[in-house]
Automatic annotation (TrEMBL):
Keywords: ATP-binding, Helicase, Hydrolase, Nucleotide-binding
Domain Helicase ATP-binding as annotated: residue spans: 16-162
GO MF assignments: ATP binding; helicase activity; hydrolase activity; nucleic acid binding
Boundaries of every Helicase C-terminal domain copy: 207-362
UniProt name for this protein: ATP-dependent helicase HrpB
PANTHER family registered for this protein in UniProt: ATP-DEPENDENT RNA HELICASE HRPB (PTHR43519)
This protein's record includes keyword ATP-binding: yes
Listed SMART domains: DEXDc (SM00487), HA2 (SM00847), HELICc (SM00490)
Leader sequence segment: none
Chain positions covered by the region annotation Disordered: 767-792
TM stretches of this protein: none
Amino acid sequence: MFELDLPVGAALPELGRAMEDVGAAVLSAPPGSGKTTLVPPYLASITEGTILVSQPRRMAARAAARRLAGLLGEKVGESVGYSVRGDTKRSRATRIEFVTAGVLLRRILADPDLDGVGAVVLDEVHERHLDSDLSAALLLDIRDLTGLRLVAMSATLAADVWARLLDAPIVEAHARTFPVDVLHRPGPAPLGVRGVERDFLAHVAAEVRLAADEQEGSVLVFLPGRREIETVAGMLDRRVRVLHGSVPAREQDEILAGGPQQQIVLATSIAESSLTVPGVTQVVDSGLAREPRTRYQSGITGLVTVFESKAGAAQRAGRAGRLGPGTARILMSQTSWSRLADYPEPEIRTADLTDFLLSALRWGDPSDLRLPDPPPEPALRSAEQILRRLGAIDGGITEFGRRISAIPAHPRTSVALLRLYDRIGTRRAAEIIALLEEDQPVPGADLAAAWRDMVRRPTPSWRQSVRRLSGLVPDAAGSPVTADEAVGEVVAAAYPDRIAVLRSGTYLTAAGTGAVLPQGSPLTGSEWLAIADLADSGRADAMIRSAIPISRDLASDMGGIEETLHEIAGRRVRAWRVRRLGAIELNRWPADIDPDAARPLLIRSLPDLLSWSDSALHLRQRLDFLHRTLGAPWPDVSDEGLSDRAEEWLGPELDRWSRGGAIQADLVDCLRRLLPWPEAVDLERLAPARIESPAGGTAKIHYDAEKPYSAMKVQECFGWQDSPLLAGGVRLQIQLLSPAARPLAVTDDLASFWRGAYSQVRAENRGRYPKHPWPEDPLSATPTRKTTRRAT
């Protein structure tokens, strides 16, 4: 092993003891301490077998392998190699292999024993990518069975979490750091309704120029994505280099090799922790990053621009102090910085979990996995629905699902490749799918035009993806279909839930999401679309970012199902045979009613279906009063209670209605079927419909309030001292009315009213109603329904 004076070197003996004692350790070491360089060869010196080192990104895996091989005086692929998607350099002599988390995950699934592997190093675990989290969980299972050695490493690490997960000690290394002068340089608001504001990007460019002019060292600029990098690059009047995941490997190598000249490197968070750009003394940090977000109900997934975390900001600023004193310009105020989250959101909480769930099911029961954070239930349900629709699971993982999982691509595009390569041709299928995997804008959302443009002017990353995908399935020429038909079939096969039909100027997707095309799109007016990419617009309808017009027949072929639908229309049950694609109804025709299917629909619809006459409603209110007051056996006649006992009180009617008969009934007779026997004989005594007044007439008793009440004119109640008792003790309230039937008072204690409030009522009303009696002593007066003149 080579000798390097790096801080992690002092921690290697403690790491070795942890490997000897428990076979696992958590190494916390800041950037520049040498953990990626020294730990793998040290493990190789004390462990038999291959040392796999997982990196979060392809660029980092290649760079780490090149650096370590160079220090050993070898070429990459000898004792040190790497394996990333579409690119592998290793041999039988390779002892240390750097891999991406995705490659590691697929290797575990293909070889659960990891035969020949002595130890696995999980580098930069703080970034919390899905593949990294899942790989860690599977490695814990393997460790239990085989004794595999594990090391989790990070520069900014919630060490306690990983120590508990691995049941391992924490080993710390302290770097010799140089001071970094942190300048807070806020500018215009960075985010607007359309993303990162151009004025803010102009502020970034101005700070880059200042940083480059202040010192001779290189400037590392952090921006959230490719579009912002291209915009800022166009604003600078000097040569810049760009660093993101789609930059060709050769250009990445040139940047990471460095040189004597000052470099201005515009990078995404890819350069935050797992890569070292030589010569950097100045950092300009936009304070923005991209994270995956998923709306599980609508299925909209994508990257969104967010403010970085404090941990991310520290990582970025630290890049300026690797070689000597440096300066970090953070383009936000100290107050804004203090409000940042401590750590970035783990992908498992925000990302599409379709691929995660398929891999987990291939391993076993997802609920048994030991993960740093559990996956959200809505995310798992959404992923399960997608996998069922793709045919990957049916209870458990299907054989087709295993074939999908074996392909190193998203399950959606894997399905399209497996189903269509022999129909449209392997090469053409690979080209279209490679375009779907490219993180590039599609002008006007016209995917077919974007594909033709890519074929004419291919990017290196697209060419590499085409080669990789073409090698995953047999070579087939395919049948003659047009280019647009081929694109449509691929997108429809990969995203059947995003097939959409035009409805009143907007699109309805099979998943039930509304969507709109960008203004001026050449696809405007197309009746059917297969949508490859949807973005959250912040409004009710999502924005279509890429799509292709398709035929109605193709839409129908993509998983359309037939079912018999029963509905209530025109106060009758009607049945239809419906062919639908998710939320999209393709066509319908009349069908025979199935009474067994119609009956539950009728019962569910009862609250909105029944038309209550006054007499039926009055009886229902009386029964409700008795149920509330006396309880059983008087029936619960609430909406829920009536639905629960529908068969008892509506049995004959349900028989008739469920065969298509008109929905009408005498609900008084129906409700009487619920009356308890023999208690029903007491209904009129306990909750009478009417009451006789002292004057000889009758008045309706109302049961639609908390307490029953009856309305009578004051003159009808003369001499009446006690209101009657209902339901064994509830006193009837009397609403006393004027001769014009206007309310004067409400009481259930008439004797107290006559002795007290009556005198005031008399004084206010006898002049207003002189033709009606207003005696001074109402208790001794004769009740009457007549005027004074008629009474004599």
